[in-house]
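Kindly inspect this today.
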Amino acid sequence: MKQAPPSHLRRRVEAVVIGASAGGIDALLGLLSGLPAASRIPKVVVLHLPEGHDSRLAEVFGERVAMPVREAADKMPLAAGTLYFAPPGYHLSIERDRCFSLSCEPPVLFSRPSIDVLMASAADVYGAGLAGLLLTGANDDGAEGMERIHRAGGLTAVQDPQEALVSVMPNAAIARHSPDFVLPLRDLHTLLLHLEAAHGH
C-alpha cells in the first residue's frame, strides 16, 4: 500500500475526477457516503454503463450522499460541492470555461463515456489543481487519463487492487505511472476529507 508525502495533502485541489467500471457503484458509495454536505470541491464521475438505458445514478446517489448530485449536461458549469455523473452514451469533457461538453465521438477502449476523455480534458483545465481517483474496473480505461493528470502536476490515487472487486483497472493505472496513493476505499475517503480541509485554508 503506497502513500504519498504529507505535502500532497496540503495542496489546494479545485476539482476531483473519478473513474470506475465493474463493481463501481458499491465502491463509489463507500468512497462518497459520509462526505460533508458543505463540500466545496466539485466531483465528476464516469462510471461505465450500458448504452441505450437511462441512468439513475444521480437519483440513487442523491438519496445516499449529503452533497447535491446531478447528471452532467452540455454547457453546464461546474458548481462548488456538487457531485456529477456522466450521462450514458456520451463522452464528457470539461472545457476551459469550466463547463461540461458532451460529444458522440466513437468509444475509447470500448467505452462511452470514457474515463480517459474526462481525465485528459480536466488535466488540461485544472493542471496541478486536479485530483484523479480510479477505482475497480475490468478494462484499461483511466490509465492514460491518470498519467495525463500526473504529467499536469495533479494528484493521482488508485484503489488498492487487492481490495477492488475487479483489479484490472487499478492495476493498469499502476503499471502506466506511479500514483501518489494506492489505498483501500476507507483511506481514499479520508484523502477526500483532507483535500476538502486543505481547500478551505
